[in-house]
Amino acid sequence: MLLSDLGELGLLAELEKRGLVRLVENDAAQVESNVVTQDALVERVHFRLDWISWRELGFRAAAVNLSDLAASGAEPVGLLVTFGAPGSTRVDDVLDLYAGMSEARVPILGGDTTAAELVLLSVTALGRSERVPGRGGALPGDRLVVTGPLGAAGAAFRAGGYVRPPLRLEEGRRLAAHAHALIDISDGIELDAGHIARRSGVRCVVDLDRIPLAEAAEAADLGFGEDFELLAAVDDPAGFTEIGHCEAGSGLVLRSGGRETAPGGYEHFR
């Protein structure tokens, strides 16, 4: 069997089933009030340097990790950064990269540097949270809400570029205080709503027509992912945009124009 047969989610499920990894069901790992998350960006997989500046790449590397802290209702403490690149990389470009990370206003506390054939960034974000809702607590009757418009990343990619990810740390803390489930939208609304449904043992019903679209975005862009808004299951929308609900049952239902549509979304290795 190949990774392309199993896919990212299948690989994680297999590792978990064999007891080789633990606590992978949420955006971040929680140890008491400490929250830790880690994401990697690899050239030609997550970005192209002819489409993004070094400074914007740095901010992106910080933001995608802080998005997982936001989904945990966490206050950031710091970042650990591993940076790899060819020896031919310009020093000024690397300085711009770290300047971009610093724009997130979270201190870089350490990390590692290494030679590599392609540029790679592996960032670990540290934070603290008194309450991490996770993905597994949604209840029948909950409303599904999002913190902002979706589809911007897909629209930008179609145009040959990237958009700066939003930082939803304050919104994450507000939602974490009462949400039954909370996740960041990194893989597309379909896959991420499906994570909540599977972990919570409910059916998530998403009305695609109620999802606020970013400027220039189309409905097809919702499956691209990388919007880094938050999706929450709550009993009170509290001012956030409602896009669906949870009910008894299992799985994910997508509705548009009164009809059901097939889920999509991005998955590594497939």
Keywords:
single chain, 270 residues, 6 helices, 7-stranded mixed sheet, 27% strand, alpha+beta
Query: How is the main sheet built?
Result: 7 strands, mixed
State the helical fraction.
Answer: 25-40%
Q: Ranges with pLDDT <50 over ≥5 residues?
A: none
What's the total count of β strands?
12
Shape from CA axes?
Answer: globular
SS element count, helices: 6
Portion in strands: 25-35%
Strand order of the largest sheet: 7-9-6-10-8-11-12
Mean pLDDT: 92
Helix vs. strand class: alpha+beta
Element order: H for helix, E for strand: HEEHEHEEEHHEHEEEEE
Radius of gyration: 18 Å
Measured between the Cα atoms of the first and last residue, the distance is: 13 Å
Can you walk through the features of this model?
- The chain is of the alpha+beta class and 270 residues long.
- It has 6 helices and 12 strands.
- The protein has a 7-stranded mixed sheet. A 5-stranded mixed sheet has the order 1-2-5-3-4, with helices on one face.
- Strand 11 (251-256) and strand 12 form a beta hairpin.
- 41% of the residues are buried.
List the helices and strands and how they pair.
Layout: H1 3-17, E1 29-31, E2 34-42, H2 54-70, E3 75-85, H3 91-102, E4 108-115, E5 120-128, E6 143-146, H4 152-158, H5 169-176, E7 181-184, H6 189-200, E8 203-207, E9 230-234, E10 241-247, E11 251-256, E12 259-261
Parallel strand pairs: 3-4, 8-11
Antiparallel strand pairs: 1-2, 2-5, 3-5, 6-9, 6-10, 7-9, 8-10, 11-12
Helix pairs in contact: 2-3, 2-5
